[in-house]
Predict the 3D structure of the following.
Amino acid sequence: MIRVHLLGRFTIFTPAGEVVLPTAKVRLLSAYLFWQQGRWMRRALLRDMLWGEVDEERAAGNLRTALYLLRRAFDAGGVPERLLQIRRDTVRVPDGPGCRVDVREFEKKVWAGLHKDVREVEPLMAAASLYRGDFLEDLDAEWCLPERRRLADLHLAVLRTLVDRLAALGLYEGAVSYASRWLAVDPLDEAAHQALMRLYHAVGQPALVVEQYEQCRQMLEKELGISPGDATVRLLQELAPTADKGAAACPRKKVPGRGRRGLRSPSAGQSPDSFFTVKNFS
């Protein structure tokens, strides 16, 4: 079985261990072919993508060399010869049960989980475990960026949904774990801070509710020069009515020319206030 990781650091594993790819261009070529697994890719496209800055003849020679080095690395690492199919004008990594690419498994589990009953969490937990990092995070190529953003957003949707479903099931410790991961990915998202405040309230930890609010306040002040929104302040007053409201009472600052980067609502068309309700955690 060949296992390919496109989430996080790009790696190829065989029963013999990790396959060593000799150059940055060979790594990019290999990553692209596994990302496009099953599709015949035209050599002209690969030449332009990897060596667009040189003339066509030189780029064609570079591609031939890269494919030779890739084949040799595959052979040395124990990758079956059939896994790299080369024709005169096209190249591909074929589909097959002997090669598992984590991105495909991740998306399969995500969509299976999102379309299941709201009490179903196992497929989404499996998807979250597959997300080891951003798509090809160690490779620097323009073609990676749109897919990197798309998969990162999908990962956030998984975390938010898991928090929602686990909380509704009364599995608060698990919900806290995924909410913490959500916050680590997007520390400026007030909805993540609000989710943790509600969860700490649900498990009877008012001090942690206040601590989470203070973390939110400090983060927004440091990074954006603003205070928490009215919804977050109201939530603190609701969940920890005896807390010191000195910081919470400060008016929200307006900073000209500065947006609130990374702030996402729990889902399209849903406000942070409606994402969690106190009754869900009681």
Q: What stands out?
A: DSSP finds eleven helices and seven strands in the chain. The mean pLDDT is 88. Residues 47 and 61 are 9 Å apart (CA to CA). The chain has two domains: 2-100, 104-281.
